[in-house]
From TrEMBL:
Family: Belongs to the pterin-4-alpha-carbinolamine dehydratase family.
The protein, known as: 4a-hydroxytetrahydrobiopterin dehydratase
HAMAP family per UniProt: Pterin_4_alpha
Lyase recorded as keyword: yes
Catalytic activity line of the entry: (4aS,6R)-4a-hydroxy-L-erythro-5,6,7,8-tetrahydrobiopterin = (6R)-L-erythro-6,7-dihydrobiopterin + H2O
The organism of origin for this protein: Coemansia asiatica
Length: 104
């Protein structure tokens, strides 16, 4: 059963992702979700990044909401099963940050 992030989780695990050093994710207005836009050198690098994220998402059975045009990838993370942010979103965002480092 997936549950929403606790206040402690939000402080300890979500906070760092929202910080500039941790990636600079933003909270989505009106939704318990986080979003971030990535820009790469070109489409190939953007798609390599998306491939890495897709493989992780499939392995986790937890999928991003995303939009890609050329070198830009806009990602929103939230958990449908609990209508909000869960530890799965933290885990996927952490992978996304690592994948972005490798693709840039
Ligand atoms: N992806 N973001 C997100 N949230 C979910 O709740 C979710 C998912 N991918 C697959 C998934 N849930 C399945 O576990 C359920 O649809 C059965």
């Amino acid at each position: 059963m997936v549950t929403k992030l606790s206040d402690t989780d939000r402080e300890q695990n979500l906070g760092p992702l929202l910080s500039a050093q941790g990636g600079g994710w933003s909270l989505v207005d009106g939704r318990d979700a986080i979003k971030k836009t990535f820009r790469f050198a070109d489409f190939n690098q953007a798609f390599a990044f998306m491939t890495s994220v897709a493989l992780k998402a499939e392995k986790m059975d937890h999928h991003p909401e995303w939009f890609n045009v050329y070198n830009r990838v806009e990602i929103t993370l939230s958990t449908h099963d609990c209508q909000g942010l869960s530890t799965r979103d933290i885990e996927l965002a952490t992978h996304i940050e690592q994948a972005a480092q490798k693709s840039s």
